[in-house]
Amino acid sequence: MESLAAIEAEVVECRACPRLVDWREQVAVERRAAFRDEEYWGRPLPAFGDPLARIVVVGLAPAAHGGNRTGRMFTGDRSGEWLYRALYRAGLADRAESIHRDDGLRLRDTLITAAVRCAPPANKPTPVEFVTCRPFLEREFAALDRVRVIVCLGQLAYDAVSRMVALRPRPRFGHGVEAPLPDGRVVVCSFHPSQQNTFTGRLTEAMLDSVFARAVTLAGVS
Predict the structure, then answer these.
(1) pLDDT in tens, 27-76
(2) pLDDT(1) > 80
(3) Which of 103, 111, 162, 215 has the most neighbouring CB atoms within 10 Å?
C-alpha cells in the first residue's frame, strides 16, 4: 500500500497545471499587506491529519492567503477558523486553532484534504484542473484503509468525491445530506464554511457541529 508520505512528496512538487502554478507563485511573491513579512508556502498542499483516519474531510482548494501562505489545509483564513473549532468541539483536534503547518496541531481519527491542491484564481479551478488533480485524491483514499465517513465541504467537493467513488444514485447536495456507499462508507455533505455562508447565516456553528457529531457516530469514533 502506498504511504501518505510518498503521495505528499509528489504533491508538493507538482507543476502540472500552468495557470495554478503561475497564480500560487505570484501570490507568494506579491503577498497581502497584512502578511508581507511572512514567507508564503506557495506550493501545492498535501493532506493533513491522522494516517489512521476514519473520517476524511474534503474541501475544494487552498485559499491564496490561507493554505497557500501557511502550508496547511484550511489554515490562515476564516473558513479554517470555523472548521478547526468544529473539529475541536467534536473531539477530533487537540486544539481549536490552526495557525501554521509547524504549530504542532494534531488531528484524531481525521484527515483533511481537497479536490484541488493549488490556490486557484478567484477560488475557481477549471474542469481540467479538477481532472488533473484527481489522482492525488484517489491515491490518498487508496492509502487510507480505515475510512468510514467522507465529509464534503461544499457542492464542488461533493461533485469531486461523487465522481471519484462513482456515486449512484447521487442525492442532491444539501447540508446534512448522506449518501451510503456499497462498501459501507458514508458520504456526508456540509455547506462550506466560507464567509459567504457564515456571514449570511446560511451556515451556523451549530449546523457544522451537527455534521461532525454525525460523522463521529457513523465512524464509530469514541
Answers:
(1) 999 999 999 999 999 999 999 999 999 999 999 999 999 999 999 999 99
(2) no
(3) 215
Q: Is the pLDDT of residue 99 over 90?
A: yes
Global pTM?
0.97
Kindly report, residue by residue over 168-181, the tens digit of the pLDDT.
999 999 999 999 99
Residue 12 DSSP symbol? T
Q: How far apart are CA 32 and CA 34, in angstroms?
A: 5
Q: How far apart are CA 176 and CA 166, in angstroms?
A: 20
Look-up of cell digits 442525492: 171
Is the dihedral angle over the CA atoms 24, 28, 29, 32 positive or is it negative? positive
Instruction: Specify the CATH class of 4-219 in words.
Output: alpha beta
DSSP, res 104: -
Phi, psi (5° rounding) for residue 3? -90, 155
What's the one-letter identity of residue 219?
A
Domain ranges of the chain: 4-219
Look up residue 53 and give its three cell numbers. Answer: 483516519
Residue 201 CB contacts under 8 Å (≥ 6 apart), including other chains: none
The residues near 94 (Cβ < 8 Å, ≥ 6 apart) are 88, 105, 106, 107, 108
Residue 222: pLDDT over 90: no
